[in-house]
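Obj.: predict assembly geometry.
Materials: sequence records (below).
Method: joint structure prediction, all chains together.
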Amino acid sequence: MRQLQALSIILCTVFVGGVQAADKRALPYQHWKTAQQTPVYFIENHQLPIVDAAVVFDAGSARDGKAYGQAALTNALLDAGSKGLDVNEIPKRFEQVGAVFDSSVDRDMASVSLRTLVDKTYRGPAVDTLLSVLKAPLFPEDQIKRVKHQFKTHFDGLQQNPRALASMHFYKALYGDQPYGHWVMGEDATVQKITRSDVQAFFQRYYTAQNAMIVMVGSVSKKQAEKMAEKIAAVLPQGKRAEPLEPMIAYSGGRKWIDYPSKQTSVLWGQQGINRQNPDYFPLMVGNAILGNGMTSRLFKRVRSDEGLVYSISSYFDRMRQPGPFVLSFQTRKLAALKAYDLAKSVTKQFLDEGPTDKELEAAKKNIIGSFALSLAGNDALLRSLTIQAFYHVPADYFETYRNNVAAVTRSQVKAAMRKHFDYSHFISVFVGQPVKVHRHG
Amino acid sequence: MGWQRLLGLFSLSFWLVGAAASPVTAYHLPNGLEVRFKPDHRAPVVLTQVWYRVGASHEPMGLTGISHFLEHMMFRGTAQVGPGEFSRIIAENGGSENAFTAADFTAYYQLMPAEQLETSLRLEADRMHNLILRREDYEKERLVVMEERRMRVDDAPHGIAHERFMSIAHIASPYHHPTIGWMDDVRQLSLEDLRAWYERWYAPNNAILVVVGDVKVAELKHLVQQYFASIPRKKIAKQKAQHEVKPLGKREVAVHVPAKLPWLLVGYNVPVVKTAKQPWEPYALSVLTGLLSGGDSARFAKNLVREQQVATSVDAGYDLFSRLDQVLTIAATPGPGHTLAELEAAIDKEIMQLKNHRVSQGELNRVKAQEIASHVFAEDSLQAQASNIGALEAVGLSWRDYDRFLKNIRAVTADQVRLVARRYLTTKRQAIARLRPEALSS
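Observations (raw structure tokens):
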């Protein structure tokens, strides 16, 4: 009983009225390097008794080489068993203390993340288990076999998902054999061939202290954060940073039709876009907001609200380390697909030719600036923004200057940037659906 | 896991219920509008939700999908706010918005900078009683809703299978039909139908306003008075009782659709908090669900996915806070080389285990620890905090029931888990849907 009271007293004094020394920055992070030179980004935030930590590696599917799926498979096997902790013991240790462990991969990054209650009784075991996962994953053969079966099921699942099929074919058409071209999880044929020593080699090469960054948000002190980061970096081999990838040059033009027995036809239309380093970044973000992001966008209004041709339609830039796609996406019933496609194209063409109106520009800027705080609301959101700050080499004041940069965008900048970057007559189109006989007269 | 650690977690739940968790201000206006406010000053944002106590389960045959269709129409303008203006105003003031329809309720929300609370309230109050339903909007939006149905259900093997499953799992219960509506019904919903549905259900005395964020209660009360107080209440027809009938035998349905992967849905008709004769039963059922499926250390993941590999994925879900009796549902994909029959047998075996053997204290503690931790984690999300209030209030429960949930979960014993397994996970109460893939060719 006394222990119970003692704990609740500790909790109360920590969490009642915690006002931080004023750090008025939008993203008030601290930054340092561990003894192993691993960069650490940390936001101290005592409003809730939780801490989120992510260890992010330059180990995304762009690092697969020809062994498509290697990055994803290695990442999926991290918690398949470590020295002293088998595949059943690891989740048990996390979940016993209510901790949430996750691992994920995209084209650029591979990461492991942990969300835990901050009290040492729970944080201790949660972090210890995370360290075990990172330190010496065993990649047992039986687990490799089992996880490969999981991947096979995933690939089968893709075959019955028209939107995923469209995305897969679009990236393939855009990048071909270059590192961004293939599906993040790889392909059945290539995944089946990956061996245990391949996985070990990938892990040893990319899951290193020099190739990692640590991102933390939550209710620990700077000292505690330093300690946690040192522990994490210490279990990783020193290693080397991953080499920069060769610049990818995307393909353009062409149309691909994938037959699929669906009531709707899924359409993707686009080209290579930009990354956050591009000098036209802000004019293009504002331009895209007007063209295809949200219920007030031109595409939504014209193709959905005015014509009822679609439920979902949008355009977006996939912002990766190297320029990812700009893509316009929608689905509609088979017989309306080409009509919707023509309309979407003409809306885009008109926008590129004329640029935004003053009213549209002001509204978009107001929205982006006004909603900026939403992207930093909550530990989860802070962690995401901090990861962008850490991984994508944006300037240290990227978040501080974001709103001013948006405010400075002019109509002619938007028009010029979109005309400079978009060559819509050479966009790639991908259709997934039932073929329709089109009789074009004249 | 040691009892000391678990006690520590319970002291944390004490923090949630008592000391430092934000208190909810609850009151109502003379016109019947219920107001719930929870402060969250961590970021300068506010989430406003309006929940109407009408959803798919209020719909008779022939009018299925009308609550959802009306949700779409609520964005099309009022006397004050022209077509598209609602979204434009929200966007320009830095907000994001959406809505959702479920079986028990329809909810609308905006996430705004904190100083824009008035904008949210003004617009929500306006469309609560001033919606204008125009023929041209109705005609376009009906097409949009049909596209949405195609996307979510018709072209999604799991969507179709789940829809067919619901139609046999629920016998007399109005949870039987899909929220998006049967396609025939949606196609034939008239403008007059929509008007009548709006008039019948949209009133302050059938709504709950939930606000979570960085605002002061005095300001909120003043604005609520200003914008909502003068909206007249309506006579809302008393809901007729619609108890689920006693299941008298197993129900089975086969779903043959173009797909690549088989899929299995197994459900058991069970009571909920609002309907249970024994108040502890729904909490025991929640714990049971957690024992089976509450993470990677739970029984399904451990036994079926990792050990036997008869499943690539298997999850169980149960909503104890719904308005009417529910179906505890297990969804599973067989592992490569395993049949649906083998998967069913494996699931049956796990259920038998629960009936025949009392679960260990360690496993119970794990489930409880996860529930407590997830309650704390939910405090990081405005959406979670608001929905945990709104979803309960909308079905006639109290926001307090969310915190009482922890206390009631704590009290669940191993004997109670075995009891509910024996009482409710019986063949007579069972409904099964089996998705059998047909060839995927146009």
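Conclusions so far: Chain A touches chain B through 79 residues (CB under 8 Å).
To do: check interface contacts against the pulldown list.
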